[in-house]
Amino acid sequence: MSDLKYLDLGHNQLNGQLSDMFGQLPKLNFLDLSFNTLSGNLPHSFGSLSHLDTLHLENNQFTGPIDVLGNLPLEELNVENNKFTGSVPNKLKNIGNIQTGGNPWSSKSSDIDRKGGLSLGGGRSGPSGAAVAGIVIGVLAALAIIISLIACRSRPPPSSSNFIDEERPSPRRPFSSLEAYEFTKPPDLRELKSYDSSSSLGSKSFKSSRSTGLKPPPMGLVGSSTDNDFADRLHRRKSSSVRAIAYSLSDLQAATGNFAAGRLLAEGSIGRVYRAKYADGKVLAVKKIDSSHFQGRSPEEFVDIVSNISKLKHQNVAELVGYCSEQGHNMLVYEYFRNGSLHQFLHLSDDFSKPLTWNTRVRIALGAARGVEYLHEACFPPSIHKNIKSSNIFLDAELNPCLSECGLTTFHQNTSDNLGVGYNPPECADLSAYTVKSDVYCFGVVMLELLSGRMPFDSSKPKMEQSLVRWAMPQLHDIDALEKMVDPALCGLYPSKALSRLADVIALCVQSEPEFRPPISEVVQALVRVTSSFDYDHDRR
């Protein structure tokens, strides 16, 4: 437990006083106790959290001074809407991201609302590799100690883009099971199981991979009232739970040239994405959601959506930087990926582009699978993506994949519209039939694209070859046919054994019956075995 670095107990309806036990967490650098009904003074052991850089205590009933926080290396502090007294220590007033309003301070100068920016240079917030690998099981112990020493009760949280048929199953090789992150609901606490993903790759795992950093994103608050004052307070409360920058409409208009056609990056099923460029050279991607998606929705619903997306923290999930909700405009702001999407790399490259190598393709598949695994097995309740395709997988400067469009399920009611021809799972003629196994099917199609270099549906091909899945399925278990369907751009530079293993994984993912498809955690483990013989240190485009 002493190695724990990341602890989030926000939105759990905890009450009572904190025990003075935080000295047992010397390496903690992120702590969130927000949106509970915790009371009393802050324990003296808070002062021993010498590595703490982010602290969220907002919307509780804490009392007394916050002097114990004065010498902490905090970069982000939110103590809004409590009963703190005294004044804010001078050292804390220099924090770039600090919010202290809604407390009976002795001086008005202690009311501070300064929201700093997020790192936009491809960096990610959330736990680092050392924060999670090998110590996640310690979370359970940490939580048990904290909860047992807090006179509290705990319930599960309330339920709730980035741009830019097939055959009966053949005999399959058994997948080794993966101990996935799972969140059960005992009377007082969620139980967390974990695995060390780095150890499974061995010494030759690709070294740019940070820890999976899995954290269940708490779902948004739910509430309604006809009382205007209460509704306004509720909106402010929800907004304060959003961990992203609130951009003004005028700011985004200026950065995108008033959403000029020349700044258009992509157009999807829920809106357009524009390139926003600032005077300091910073570049962002702004998804402007079509107003038709908000007919009959309240403004608070968009804040709920943003709040949930802002809590998604994983190295292979595109991170939300900010949002805007003004004058009927609802926008999401993401980091900008200069390398574009996997679709662009595979299908839109010119004659001068260097193709993706075999090792890089498998590495992209593994990273993207881990992003899907986070949504399916670390989020509570499981988050179905409903829009997995190569154009929604973006590549950073080192060609590590980031899954975009996460948390936007509410806008994807008709999956056939947003997925497009070639990706739709057979069961999705019935909208209610879309499950996590449907996501697995779509991911299988993406892996087919990586293997063959072909698009999911290509009307320029002969009729029997237009559907990638229908064309590929009969060949995936025939080694001679399999080698002929590999992307010619690879020039035969791939290991035959790894090719066969990847084909087996793909064949299972695109089974026409959902029950025969493996869970994404088993896909991850199978891809780890495909990569086990590779040294990624020397593998790049």
Automatic annotation (TrEMBL):
| Segments forming domain Protein kinase | 259-534
Annotated signal peptide: none
Naming one, the record's GO cellular component terms include: membrane
Cite the residue spans of the region called Disordered: 99-124, 157-227
Q: Where in the cell is it found?
A: Membrane
Bias (Polar residues): 99-109
Q: What is this protein called?
A: Protein kinase domain-containing protein
Taxonomic source organism: Stephania yunnanensis
